[in-house]
Amino acid sequence: AVIASAAAAQAAVIQRVDVRGAQRVGAEAVRSNLSIQPGKTFSNADIDESVKRLYATGFFSDVQISVSGGTLVVTVAENQLVNQVVFNGNRKIKDDKLAGIVQTQPQGPYSDSLISADIQRIKEAYTAIGRSDVEVTTQVVPVAEGRVNLAFVINEGERTKISSINFSGNNAYSDGRLASVLQTKESGLLSFLTRKDVYNEDKLRADEEALRQFYYNHGYADFRVISSEAVLNEAGNEYTINITVDEGQRYKFGAVTVESTVDGVDAAQLQGLLETHEGSTYSARDVQKSMEAISRRVSSAGYPFARVVPRGDRNFENNTIGVTYLVDQGERAYVERIEVRGNTRTRDYVIRREFDISEGDAFNQETISRAKRRLEALGFFSAVNISTQPGSSPDRVVVVVDVQDQPTGSFGIGAGYSVDNGGVVLEASVEEKNFLGRGQFIRVAAGGGFDDTQTYNFSFTEPYFLGYRLAAGFDVFKSSTSSNSQYDYEEQGATVRVTAPITEDLATTLRYTYKQIDYINDGAFGANGVAGGGDDTIAAPYIDAITGSTWTQSIIGHSIVYNTVDDRQNPHEGIYASFTHEYAGLGGDSDFYKAYARARLFYTLSDEFDVVGSLAGSAGHVVALGDNLNVFDQFKIGGKEIRGFANSGIGPRMGGDSIGGTTYFTASAEATFPLPAVPQDLGFRGAIFADAGTLFGSKLKNDAGADGTDMAIRASVGAGIQWNSPFGALRFDYAVPVAKEDYDDTQEFRFSMANQF
Amino acid sequence: CQSDPDIDITKLAAETDPPEVLYNQGLANIKAGNMSEAARKFDAVDAQHPFSEWSRKSLVMSTFTKYRLGRYADAIATGNRYMNLYPKSEDAAYAQYLVGLSYWKQISSVTQDQKNSVKTIEAMQRVVDEFPNSEYVDDAQAKIRFARDQLAGKEMQVGRYYLERKEYLASIQRFRVVVERYPNTNQIEEALARLVEAYYAMGVVQEAQTAAAVLGHNYPDSQWYADSYQLLQKGGLEPRENAGSWIARAGKQLLTGS
Amino acid sequence: CTTSEVFHNGYVVDQAALDLVPVGSSREQVLLSLGTPSTTATFDGEVFYYISQKRVRSVAFMKQKLVEQQILAIYFDKNGIVTQEANYTLQDGKVFDTISRTTPTGGRDLTFLQQLLSGGGGAANSVKNILGGMGN
Predict the structure, then answer these.
(1) Which of B3, B51, B113 minimises the CB distance to A29?
(2) Distance between CA A708 and CA A721 in Å, rounded?
(3) B71 neighbourhood in chain A, CB within 8 Å
(4) What SS3 state is found at B147?
(5) Which residues contact B71 (CB under 8 A, 6 or more apart)?
(6) Among candidates A132, A264, A154, which has minimal Cα distance to A198?
(7) Rounded to two decimals, what is the model's pTM?
(8) What phi and psi values does residue A148 have, to the nearest 5 degrees?
(9) What SS3 state is found at B172?
């Protein structure tokens, strides 16, 4: 019989393999892909295996294997072969990138199923860059026998925009407020730069999650996203995204208790750690923080296996959620190994040191998720997932840390402040957050501004200095400006600093700065240093500064910073407070003790209209330890602190030149709100504010006759626009002084940096 | 910005230069040291005359040129394609060896992920197993030893990290992995010396002595043994064979590398 | 609130389970009540070591300081019966400098330039993003 029954073929042996139908591919290639060899026994499994492998090569549209007598007959029908693959009509995505996505390759098989899969892939690539109405067709031209040329003809169409994002069902928060939570933005003037208006499926899913987190953290425990869909309107080639939500009730915390089934763990003691207090608005983040605090305290007390499980019980009448933190005994498992994988650049210890547990310790889920949060906060990885695998024995677990390095170098153009007079400079900087994979930070920047201001600085930081969690580093800086008509100001120096975190939000820094300062006379007055007549007279202290030039300062400074602001770019809640005191006198020409503090509180006045209020205050005092101060030792207060005044516009003056002051107080109240007409994507916000402050006292050698040395309150009110531009947060303010001294230097319009902490 | 010009495929005839001409042009380019041009020539042979004897030879040469150009990912792809099509042909050993070399070149320092070392071992092991009498077996084994040294070096590096932080248990586990799984690598001496240090620092003197004794037995003139001996010496102890003959058993196990 | 934090590393000692395995009990009993040992004798499995450490970190940035260390060693005879139990504490530990020399290892290490170019992907494409963006 032609085909021996498969069973009989069980232990059959064949002498010859006969290949039919393989002209181009060549019999030899077919034979070498068979797992059946002449003279060797084979079974059905070998036949299936060979069929599978032949199909896997992709060159055959049909494969038949049969046994007749002593020969194995393999009949194949060959696919046509592709000679060349070409992409026409593509502008936005280059040929070689498309060639990488597409499966059909030159001299590969030509099969319709493969081609339709490729078309789908090309479409997905274009949707990912916001061009979802791309059309892809193919053009096939036969070449030699059995070989064809294939061209993908691509008509890219226009950028698919997002015309509007509409929310429905939200009455607690305005559309604008919710839109600022989402990553996907409506198309606007700048979206070709920010590319945030590209719609894609999983970004929308991520936005839904962001909305859930936002509502859960503001008391809406029952919040649900009912539906979110993107409707593509073919004609206008744009999406409208409709998100319907059901906010549910706003909950407050009901009774909050801690229970423990682990003997030796006293629940009452843990009560003090809780961030969730009865009566305050429900917030998922506070619950998570409380869980972490309890878990830390319990494992510190010697119960590393204990687990904290929160249980909420809703009371629908008075809209409260009672939370019970149950501490119970987790299973006793130990970490056998911590495997770090995927780190092609970051070094192993930079990852391992973020773990508070090490190999052989008790497995504690809370410490693992804390390490994950820390690793993500480093900003070195595009993805961090930590999973566990069973260890070598039942009570052993292997923790697998899978990271994916991402480029951490960045080249940026941003706005910054020049040193002497606080004018704005445009700075170009190259930054590397993960230098050589060692977690070190390096930044080189150069900037320029008006009055040929130039700034250069280089900074380096090692986050784990000598194994301690101390961020030690140094900065080298040089800058010069001739903003003052009578002299050029130059300074250069270096700072060595060590920053130590005390808690999550509180850190303290110790620094030593050595600085050289130069006041260079550019011929504004007589060579012998006596102030010439006419308006280009210069205040005596500056003459001292010029004649005694190349001053040196050697300052030891210590500061404490408390920062709980939620988002630097767009703050809605939180406090930024810093206190610094400096002692200059170990060498150098300056001899003073200086202390200054600054605090700014953000508070959302109305969630509905996304109005954010902020109160700020600052104060400073410098005491001369030697006989008196130099002009560069004293504080210079002006438009930066009290808008409506020029740089160093207030305080003691001599002949029109500000000579700074020994003591200052400022205060400012401000409310920012979204601009109604302007699309959200541009990042503009309006602001109205009132500033007040004073600068007085002077301890310079010859500051006799200076006016304004006594305290006089200056105040101003105004309005402004804040723009979160790609170059950083910028401000354009217009302010009118309402209380000023006649000798003050006013300036109504001002361009500056916003949210400068 | 410029984009790639469109190509009219009707004119794109399958230029079919005779395969041997293209192949020899490829070889000439190699001699002239122009590797990228050579790679293009060999790929052309494969494109125009797939599955011919010439295309098989040019696939090997294409793998070689891409390896020399440092395009390791391409070299591995072409090499693997050759092994799929002609697993039993006479150049298969060389192609597989080139794939192994391409992984070997990408091995990164011990502080980073060592997946390329693992891949090197896999690829080179295939050379040793499937082509036992090919002339590449010796170098393949040398590369396997290097890759195993790397894997052992990574264990040591993590072990030292924990030892420095006085987390002795973690460091001992890592050094044991080297002693048990990578005894025939260059790290074994240091692994034993570190075990002496870790146990000695914990005060479990008997284990420290055993480790030092095994180190002394197998590597009597190693600097690591001298250090360990001197360390134990300071504490008034010598690395004496403790209790009975199981040291001999441990030593034997090391020598035979079983 | 005290900022100091206590860490328990290694095996968590459970006094009750300890009393279940006096001298003379079998290897299985030890495994059952104390669990898998932290480590065993390096070259022969007839000693179980249960190692536990206690560390304190006074302030968030300081290193963890080893304050307590307990090693329980359980010796078995040839047929797996506990012959002796020993306890080592921190006092038994010796203090010395570990050898600073390390055995050289190979492998390609990233130079800064390479990182900037490859990492520069970030730098390069942020520039391209800005400039490229202007084009279309």
Answers:
(1) B51
(2) 32
(3) none
(4) helix
(5) none
(6) A132
(7) 0.79
(8) -130, 155
(9) helix
